[in-house]
Amino acid sequence: MRTEDCMSTPTATVADVAAMIDHTLLKPEATAADVAALVAEAVELGTYAVCVSPSMLPISVPEGLKIAVVCGFPSGKHTSAVKAAEAAEAVRHGADEIDMVIDIGAAKAGGFDLVQADIAAVRAAAPAPVVLKVIIESAALTDDEIVGVCRAAVAAGADFVKTSTGFHPSGGATVHAVELMHRTVADAGLFVKASGGVRTLEQARAMIAAGATRLGVSGSRALLSSEADGSAAGY
Asked: I need a labelling partner for 188 at 20 to 30 A (CA). Which of 11, 33, 156, 226 fits?
């Protein structure tokens, strides 16, 4: 069963949190060996998916572990045609999910029709059952802009809105942004992925309580052990 089909408990267990994680490796210097280690660690920790760069495909994963691949990453300043081609190629090479970055500048300029068209192009190139997550870089947007891009994602047929790439200087996920995104898309059946700066179980549980059903985390082992030892993981 997909984690987004389940209602989170008020205090998610470590296993609950693990099952919501996209275990992520997007560093430019990542190697095939690094990705193989990522997959092995994801299996050990019980995460929902691994999230990698498109150039790392194809990769081998055991049954039940999903493959998420970024698109238009990290700037979102690729043309829609390039994003669509990138998404289609990723799906051909085994991606189950696409995490695309919108054109943040279009959103800042109020061009939500352009944002919708951008998302729709990727949706057409990677139709269901591929899961489409839309990275909105929420820390760089006002509340009104967050609502606008979330509505564009709904209209374009996306499955998730996602807070952040984890690479933008404005920051990553906040409880406020997750709550606002959830309120905007939940009635339309979309879900929220919190990513960027989610480093501890306490932070993960706060995001889940705010409405997130998926988490983007690179330091998953440290996050999942942070309750016991106080350690923190980067994203």
From this structure: 11
Q: For the domain 13-228, what is the CATH code?
A: 3.20.20.70
Determine which one of 22, 83, 118, 162 is catalytic: 162
Tokens 């996209």 — which residue? 22
Annotation marks residue 193 as catalytic = yes
**Integer Rg of the chain from CA:** 16
Characterise 124 by phi-psi region: left (phi > 0), alpha (psi -120 to 50), beta (else): alpha
The three state secondary structure string of the chain is CCHHHCCCCCCCCHHHHHCCEEEEECCCCCCHHHHHHHHHHHHHHCCCEEEECHHHCCCCCCCCCEEEEEECCCCCCCCHHHHHHHHHHHHHCCCCEEEEECCHHHHHCCCHHHHHHHHHHHHHHCCCCCEEEEECCHHHCCHHHHHHHHHHHHHHCCCEEECCCCCCCCCCCCHHHHHHHHHHHHHHCCEEEEECCCCCHHHHHHHHHHCCCEEEECCHHHHHCHHHHCCCCCC
Q: Where are the domains of the chain?
A: 13-228
Reported as a single tens digit per residue, the pLDDT across 189-209 is: 999 999 999 999 999 999 999
Identify the active-site residue in 22, 133, 159, 193: 193
99, 103, 118, 159: the catalytic one is 99
Condensed to tens digits (0 to 9), the pLDDT of residues 169-181 reads 999 999 999 999 9
